Amino acid sequence: METRWLTEDERAAWLRLVAVVELLPGVLDSQLQADAGLTHFEYFVVAMLSEAPERNLRMSALAQRTNASLPRLSHVVRRLEDRGLVSRTPCPDDRRATNARLTDRGWDLVVAAAPGHVDTVRRYVVDPLTSRQVDELRGIAGALLIRLDPQGRLTPLDEPNHGP
Amino acid sequence: METRWLTEDERAAWLRLVAVVELLPGVLDSQLQADAGLTHFEYFVVAMLSEAPERNLRMSALAQRTNASLPRLSHVVRRLEDRGLVSRTPCPDDRRATNARLTDRGWDLVVAAAPGHVDTVRRYVVDPLTSRQVDELRGIAGALLIRLDPQGRLTPLDEPNHGP
User: Fold this and answer.
1) Contact A147 B123 (CB under 8 A)
2) Which of A12, A121, A129 is nearest residue B140 as measured by Cβ atoms?
């Protein structure tokens, strides 16, 4: 099959996206590490728990929402547990499963860390864009996720981005 | 200062972008590892060299274009050198500096790997978008890079995305 090389416009868009994908994680990590002692991934884990009913999720559900394998998530949750931010208990509905729950101390950390994180998101992502571009970005990233995340695991907080 | 929380539309766009940033590197790495034995970062390094005059760049320039620290880049280039893909020589203009040059074998690997990589980029990024969205993505990612990469280090292949 003949390779369909990128056009100049496609290549320019692609190289810019690659640069964003390369640079954004470091910016998020730096701010959260400095202000809350958390990586962006750790923050994402505790933020997901803070929004769950009773601040509690089954580990398998938490793994899906954070795009982590269970071993990777278990490792991170163990570190958060050592810091008293999360506690793990057997799931009452399924003794083989484990739940992760945000502790009061974890909740306080999310509450304290959220404003600085949101400022960073505004500064590097939202504020440089017009509101039309924000809408476009939502549509563009949604279109990519249909391929990158066909089961919609990472975007369950919103309406589904594709059919049933 | 009062926190300006994200609106629902901003939050939806942001969460989708985070998911793309989380998922895209794994997709690129998996395909390149399977087909060419390279991480996406290693591929990016050899691809940058393949486009340079005489397939040769000063290590400091290569570090800028790939957003790598010199120690990280040196580590990766050493591995590429061990595989006979890159060679390092003292820079003739500045004996304290080192140049990295793509070998013939490195060139052959880039030529062999490029079609599969481009197919992956098309499949996950370009083809799901309309051509209008590709143009929008270029503008959006360019706007973010003004903040993320104010010196324009990662996008020197194109017209500057901001003033002189």
Assistant:
1) yes
2) A129
Q: What distances in angstroms separate CA A116 from CA A100, A104, A109, B13, one per listed residue?
A: 25, 20, 12, 19
Burial of A145 from C-beta contacts in 10 A (0-12 / 13-18 / 19+): buried
* pTM confidence score: 0.88
Which of A13, A126, A131 faces B134 most closely, judged by CB atoms? A13
Q: How many CB pairs under 8 A join A and B?
A: 177
* Minimum mean pLDDT range among A105-114, B37-46, B152-161: B152-161
Higher pLDDT, B160 or A139: A139
Rounded to two decimals, the ipTM of the complex is: 0.89
Contact (CB, 8 A) for A71 and A114: no
Interface of A with B in 34-73 (CB under 8 A): 44, 67
- For residue A17 the two structure tokens come to 């996206």
- Rounded to an integer, what distance in angstroms lies between the CA atom of residue B154 and that of residue A26? 15
In the sheet with A56-58, reading across from the earlier edge strand, the strands are A56-58, A94-102, A86-91
Q: How many CB atoms lie within 10 A of CB B40?
A: 23
